[in-house]
Amino acid sequence: MSARVISRDRISGFLDCILRKYPLVAPVEEDGVVAYRRVAAAREVALDAGLSDVPPKTHFFPQTEVLFHYSNLSGLEIVEPAGAPETVLFGVRPCDLRGFAALDPVFGGRFKDVYYRDKREKTTVVGLSCTSVLPTCFCRAYGSSPVDGTGADLMFTRLGERYLVEVRTPKGARLVEDCADFFTEDGVREAAREKEVLARELDGRFVRRVDLDSVKEKVDGMFESPYWGKLAQRCLGCGICTFLCPTCHCFDIVDEDRGDRTGCRLRCWDSCMFTDFTLHTSGHNPRATKTERVRNRFLHKLKYHLDRYGLAGCVGCGRCVAKCPVNIDITRVIAEIKEVD
Amino acid sequence: MSHRDNPLRPHPATILKIVPETRDVKTFRLTLDDDEAMENWRHEPGQLAMVSVFGVGEAMFSISSAPTRRGFIELSIKCMGKVTRALHGLEAGDKVGMRGPYGNHFPYEQFKGQDLLFVGGGIGLAPLRSLVDFVFAEENRADYGRVEILYGARSYDDLCFKYDVLDGWTKQPNTHIYTTIDRAEEQWRGHVGFVPAYLEEVAPAAHNKVALICGPPIMIKFVMQALQKLDFRDEQVYSTLELRMKCGVGKCGRCNIGSKFVCLNGPVFSMAEIGQMPPEF
Amino acid sequence: MKQAVEELRRQAAGLLKEERVKCVIGWTQGTDVARAVPFFATSVRQAARLTWTPFCVNNLSKYLLNHRYDNTPLAVVVKGCDSRGINRLVQDRQFVRERVVVLGLPCGGMLDREKVLRVVDPGAALQEVEDRGSEYMLRTDKGEYGFEKREALLSKCLECEHNIPVVSDLMIGPQVPSPAGSGIDRFAGVRELETRDPAVRSTFWDRHFARCLRCYACRNVCPACNCKECSFEQAVPGWQQGACWLSKRNHPGQNYLFHLIRMFHVAGRCIDCGECARVCPVNIPLRELYRKVMKDAEELFAMKTPGTDPEEVPLLSTYRTDDPEEFS
Hints:
Chain A is α/β, with parallel strands linked by helices.
């Protein structure tokens, strides 16, 4: 793996260089909320914003996506949207890189999701190490770390007034070549050493010590446990935890007709926490109460995703911990599961 | 974006014929507009297809025609909700969308040399019909032994596929059809009573036999109990499960029972498999 | 607040022991120092886990809806603002007042957890809180911290209308002074927005609504939202087939529609507990939106804040021929 160094004052030049060639999606701050959006200029990018409120899965799996337009006027015509352009997604934190890895097999497999795959293949992902650890962070429990570049094409790590840039894939190398003027190879070795120091320092800053040992084995036998009912009592049934989760992928498919036999079919995020998520037309609902829905969510995170794909369904980003209005805290749930008889 | 590989893009399809089955069930005979796609369409008994009414939405249905009957696809659909109501308002010649086939199928390869017992209730006969007609096809009939079909509905009018159940199938050799309706009616000369009770009355022998069930959840539950009493082992009994689906390809996340997606791992499960799954369906 | 905590636990234990209620809905300590969490005590032993701190933000009246179709006798703990929710739910016939024992807590205001966590280690254990009138003293295992209320309270608390519950069967703990500043204009935020140019206002709300995730946390936390089935979720389509009132599409226009429909829906029902704004994961200032309607109702129809008076007929349940027709 090769590496470069870029000085901090040249970052916006680099981002503008990207913008001359590719659409750029990066963290943007608005009214105190950080989310990933297409930007028009480097100054819009919230470089030091820390973990975003809304995860960057929005880029590959937008909240609403047109699947196709149809016209049923004279014969049936179905027109899919044009493919995605080559894009750069900048500033993805290590936990969210893991989130992409968790989504990949969902949108892959025997039936490949062309919408997700198309954007995934055409996007160069630039990772960004964390420089602080939030009280809600626990990526460590999943074997990741605040500086883990796994899944990135390029990995940026801020070290004072410069960044170490690790080139992890040919896609990453191409981006460095595209904007070669902004990088230098001088001081790479020193920066790499500094990154190790930073990694050790950040590792000591985790407030939440989460131990997943034996949790999977435990939840395998916990379907009927009264624990879920107790946990669900305070749940409001809103979609915050699922919508802000980097690994949640549930969606609904709806048609929007213009009233003239033309329209489009969309998919929109949906949430297993919503009452009507599994409601049958007959009125039967296999997950009729909050108890079943809360259980499904936690079993998805701690068991089902592992069973299906051999990958954890949680990356330890802590967004649900931070934002749940009633403090349903997955790190507490993990601890409590171990205590359940 | 290449649409040939897009699993969420339906094939344009045309309704060839609509057969009214009951006051709220119609069988739609469809063909894909693209000749090549129709030629390549291969489904297995028990598989599912997603049908679109553009502007209203999509819903998943069991395919009720046998794969041995080429050139069209039949779906028998009860008028229940948004999409089905729209479908019931369509006429022959109207355009819909079709994608699939999805899911697993009745493992008929394993049933060779055995007798078959079909137990259906109401619209639940639809997925079973695909297998019944497959077994009755000339090229397959010799592979299977005696066929028994026990079918019930709320009333005479609610019996689907009367032309098969009360006529065509009854003429098949080495076959017996038992029909029942829930409550007595003037002109009905057949059996009256619920399916599970009738099954116990008929008491088919379990030896070298596979039982295949489909119907409303409550019927499935009691039929399973009846079969247990008749000494059927869990490995001898298969049922199809139904859950709400949106994508049909294991992504939208709502048809899971535990770690399994019904759209990918189902809809056909043996009782032995169902026993291993959490009771959330 | 120690005295109130002890009394709360004693009263809750008594209610459970005498089997007057099956469950006391209160708060217990959450998973960090600046957090309390809704808690459902069903035994005397569990009653000892109830707490009362300046982090008990959750409006627990909403949880009464969990039991609206059974006859479980319940007790619920409320602050002043939350207590308006009790009156509203009774007015909406969501439960029978006699079935619920309301435990009222005079409240000196809720601290803004963000501000507290800037100073206090989130992993610290909260041992005791003292309400000194103009400030809170937090004693933790990692030290003592003082917070000036004027600086560190939630903004809704600085505009507090009822710090003493408007309805209760049992008042717990000593009376405390209202955290609201004297002569404060409760609708200052709304008035400020009203003075802006319509185009500026429009851009302001466009920007906020465009961020909406449609997670429905604002609706699900809201005691005014007590419909059995929400119109946004009706399975049977309305005027347009395929979509009900609005599309699931996350689009600024659709989101706008969602929030405006909700705004009109909670007119005369919103009790101004501020939970919607607190739970919103993308910081939409929802409280200001609903308070605009509240302010208009107060100015045009002399309506009190909904839930203040159990006898007052709700805004949209009254019709008077002399009602003014102005809209501002």
